[in-house]
Structure formats: C-alpha cells, structure tokens
Design goal:
By secondary structure, this protein is an alpha/beta fold. The chain folds into two domains: 117 residues, NAD(P)-binding Rossmann-like Domain (Rossmann fold); 73 residues, Orthogonal Bundle (N-(1-d-carboxylethyl)-l-norvaline Dehydrogenase, domain 2). It is 39% helix and 14% strand. The longest helix has 17 residues. The protein is elongated, with a radius of gyration of 18 Å.
Amino acid sequence: MQIIISATDHQFQLLADKFNKDNHIIVRYYVSDEVVPAGDIYIDACFEENGPCFLSIKEQTVLVNAVCTVADSLPNNYVRFNGWDGFLSQPTLEIAGNDEAVSKAVELLESAGLPTVVSADALGMIGPRVVSMIINEAYFALAENISTQEEINTAMKLGTNYPYGPFEWCELIGFHKVSTLLQHLAKTNERYSLAPAFLNH
C-alpha cells in the first residue's frame, strides 16, 4: 500500500510512525510538487491551516485534518481526522465523515495497521471537543483564583492521568484552534462560551 502524506515535519513523523514501513510505502508530498503521486491513501495534515492539497484525487480516500469542518462541506471521498497536536501520538486515529467514505477509510487504515475510532460527523469530534471544554473550564478556575496554571496542570494530570494539564494542552494544540472550536460550538450551545480569562489570553 502506498500512503501519501502532506504534513509539517513533526506531523509527518508522527503519521509515518503509525504505519508498518516494512509492508507499506510512505511518500511525503509537498504542495510545491508538480505532480501528486499515485497512492492508496492520501493524508492532508495541514488542511485547516493551508486548505486542501489533494483536490485532484476523486476516487481514493483522502484524510484531512479537519476538526472544525464537517463532511457536508467536503468532497465525498474525504474523511476528517483529529490531527491536533497531542492526539496524533495516540495509538488510534479518530475519524468522521459520511458513512460510505468512513467505512472505506476504516478498512484501508486497519489493513495498513492503524486502528481507528469513528466519531459522529460533528464539529470538534470527540477528543478535541472534550479537551477544549476542559481547557475552557480551567480558565474559569484560574479567573476565580482557585489555583495557578501550574497547580491546575499538575492536579489534572495526577487526578485524571491525562498526559497534559489543560494549559499545557492549550499551548500544545494552539490557543487559536481551541478558541475557534469553542466559538463555533457556542453558536448553538452557550455552555461552550469562552471563559473571560480565555478571551483575555
């Protein structure tokens, strides 16, 4: 199986490491390349930052790092995945999209040795939505002088066995990505409204 990946250096290494290189060919694609190589799976890890780079691919599965984009606005062969920093190092890949495309993606990824978790095709999927809410709640706690950022980080890691505290998650993922997701979600549910301390970040 040939897997074509467009990603930053960091993302590429994390994604490439998910596949058994003895059985599969991993090819890095740069947007400056004149020709998109033939592949079985295409992965666009920079989709939300730079826009789509595999629009010419109409039949094969294209995985796009699209936490804040739902499948209705994507081509039918596109499947969303959670490519936020902090999640890519996990052993599974969270994906979402239309049923037909997701079923095909699950089959392809599992045959390539990468287990998946299928989420409903909703903004934020599962992991990013939950972690963003925890980050937002941590900013509420900080504003109420419950504790310091460092102590909140430590308490969350020790109490929940999370790999990162909420403020560490926010720095790792990127403040803009977290706030963008929360603002999108808040349009239909006010419980996602940004904490005042978040707004003053």
